[in-house]
């Protein structure tokens, strides 16, 4: 049995101080058996908790750690920058350095603004889209997550109504009603909506939806979004907080060769430190203050420590073959799981793209949030407990995707696949 005494004790103490004992809800292990494990160290693809249990980690801090834990170059870059202080609240040369690094290697970005989280990037991009177009409504898709921005914490209402219904207390109806919600892949619904409503500023989408399982879209659907946005003078925002620098240096925009008007970043861009950014064409970005009238600011935005981590990470991603190697490794791992699933005809699948994968409890390809089967949660809860015992750490929910990092080598992946397969066998025995 996995030792959990120390995590259990720490969690009890944390609960007396913090709501639910955590600082971000999914960490609380609500959908799996608790207590949540308190991690104290990570190295390469492995993490160690306060009871000294070691795991092969497929959560990777929810995506930022594409180079694994405790990457030497990132650590050294942070240490070096730290010698000179942590923040000045002034322009700093590292900003120019990361700006050049990204803009010279991303064909769809001309200008960028750095912020401190993915949520902040999305919130700012929405304001910019509204300021630029002079229109007020936003279209989003059910199953896409865009951080905890008020107006995006909404889901589709009942029936044919597309007005958003708040999914969080504290979001006034007046905010939710400016967000229109559609199912992914619903072209007819989108065309109808655009024909009826002239007040839409932007469409925001995770081009590779990875927050509700991995709902990989058809290329055609994304191309059609671009076309419709052009026809209706609406901005297309790709929320690439997960997919950015993950499926290639140019993210999903590059992967699908589609130019969005604005792109939001987070996670990988900060090399494991809190960073977000948004960017697009100069002509649109010129509307941001102080160049333009759309206000957006940040005390610790583009602080030197975070940027040096980002620079050290991105430079490694630009090495020849980085993404193709990572994708090959992921395919190797995914195939080992699929072989077991198919040989035994389990009602499961592994959906994957780039170095992202998702274990789904259904044989068929899933592309929309409303195709997810709620019985998956119970199966996942059991599987998750078995996996922890076996030394495998996955995000604690059936709807979280897994990430492979450059620090997972073939041997690690073979061992992990072997263990996951054995856990599946127990689950379905
Ligand atoms: C994680 C995420 C966000 C929010 O980023 P935070 O840094 O957690 O605020 C926004 N959009 C997507 C697609 C994400 O995956």
Topology of this protein?
Elements: H1 5-17, E1 39-43, E2 46-49, E3 54-57, H2 72-82, H3 93-103, E4 111-115, H4 118-133, E5 137-141, E6 154-156, E7 164-166, H5 173-176, E8 179-182, H6 187-196, E9 200-205, H7 219-232, E10 235-239, H8 251-256, E11 262-265, E12 276-280, H9 282-285, H10 304-317, H11 322-343, E13 349-353, E14 356-360, H12 376-390, E15 392-393, E16 402-403, H13 410-427
Parallel strand pairs: 3-15, 5-8, 5-9, 9-10, 10-11
Antiparallel strand pairs: 1-2, 2-3, 4-12, 6-7, 11-12, 13-14, 14-16
Helix pairs in contact: 2-10, 3-10, 11-13, 12-13
Bound molecules: pyridoxal-5'-phosphate (PLP).
Residues 117-119, 122, 145-147, 206, 211, 239, 241-242, 266, 276 line the site of pyridoxal-5'-phosphate.
Report on the structure:
The protein has 429 residues and is of the alpha/beta class. The chain has two domains: 5-70 and 320-428, Aspartate Aminotransferase, domain 1, CATH 3.90.1150.10; 72-317, Type I PLP-dependent aspartate aminotransferase-like (Major domain) (Aspartate Aminotransferase, domain 2). Helix content is 37%, strand content 16%. The strands form four sheets. The protein has a seven-stranded mixed β-sheet with strand order 4-12-11-10-9-5-8, with helices on both faces. Strands 1-2-3-15 form a four-stranded mixed β-sheet. β13 and β14 (356-360) form a beta hairpin. α2 (72-82) packs antiparallel against α10, α11 (322-343) packs parallel to α13 (410-427) and α12 (376-390) crosses α13. The two termini are 20 Å apart. Pyridoxal-5'-phosphate (PLP) binds at residues 117-119, 122, 145-147, 206, 211, 239, 241-242, 266, 276.
């Amino acid at each position: 049995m996995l030792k959990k005494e120390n995590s259990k004790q720490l969690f009890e103490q944390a609960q007396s101080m913090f709501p639910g004992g955590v600082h971000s809800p999914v960490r609380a292990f609500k959908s799996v058996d608790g207590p949540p494990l308190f991690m104290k160290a990570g190295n390469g693809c492995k993490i160690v908790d306060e009871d000294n249990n070691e795991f092969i980690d497929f959560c990777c801090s929810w995506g930022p750690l594409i180079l694994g834990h405790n990457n030497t170059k990132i650590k050294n870059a942070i240490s070096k920058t730290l010698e000179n202080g942590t923040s000045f609240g002034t322009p700093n040369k590292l900003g120019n350095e990361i700006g050049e690094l990204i803009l010279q290697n991303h064909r769809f970005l001309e200008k960028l603004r750095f912020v401190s989280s993915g949520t902040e990037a999305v919130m700012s991009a929405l304001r910019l889209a509204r300021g630029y177009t002079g229109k007020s409504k936003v279209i989003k898709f059910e199953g896409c997550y865009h951080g905890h921005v008020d107006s995006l914490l909404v889901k589709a209402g009942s029936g044919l109504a597309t007005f958003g219904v708040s999914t969080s207390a504290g979001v006034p109806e007046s905010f939710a009603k400016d967000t229109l919600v559609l199912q992914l892949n619903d072209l007819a619904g989108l065309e109808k909506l655009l024909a009826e409503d002239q007040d839409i500023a932007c469409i925001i989408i995770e081009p590779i939806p990875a927050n509700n399982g991995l709902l990989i879209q058809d290329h055609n659907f994304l191309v059609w979004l671009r076309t419709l946005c052009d026809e209706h003078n609406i901005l297309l925002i790709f929320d690439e907080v997960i997919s950015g620098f993950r499926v290639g240096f140019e993210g999903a925009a590059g992967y699908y060769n589609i130019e969005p008007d604005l792109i939001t970043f987070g996670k990988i861009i900060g090399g494991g430190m809190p960073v977000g950014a948004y960017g697009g064409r100069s002509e649109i970005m010129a509307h941001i203050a102080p160049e333009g009238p759309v206000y957006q600011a940040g005390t610790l935005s583009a602080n030197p420590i975070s940027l040096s981590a980002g620079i050290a990470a991105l430079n490694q991603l630009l090495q020849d073959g980085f993404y193709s190697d990572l994708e090959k490794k992921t395919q190797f791992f995914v195939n080992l799981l699929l072989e077991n699933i198919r040989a035994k005809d389990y009602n499961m699948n592994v959906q994957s793209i780039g170095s992202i994968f998702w274990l789904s409890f259904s044989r068929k390809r899933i592309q929309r949030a409303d195709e997810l089967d709620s019985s998956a949660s119970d199966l996942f809860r059991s599987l998750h407990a078995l996996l922890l015992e076996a030394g495998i750490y996955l995000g604690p929910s059936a709807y979280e995707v897994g990430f492979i990092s450059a620090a997972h080598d073939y041997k690690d992946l073979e061992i992990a696949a072997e263990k996951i397969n054995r856990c599946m066998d127990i689950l379905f025995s």
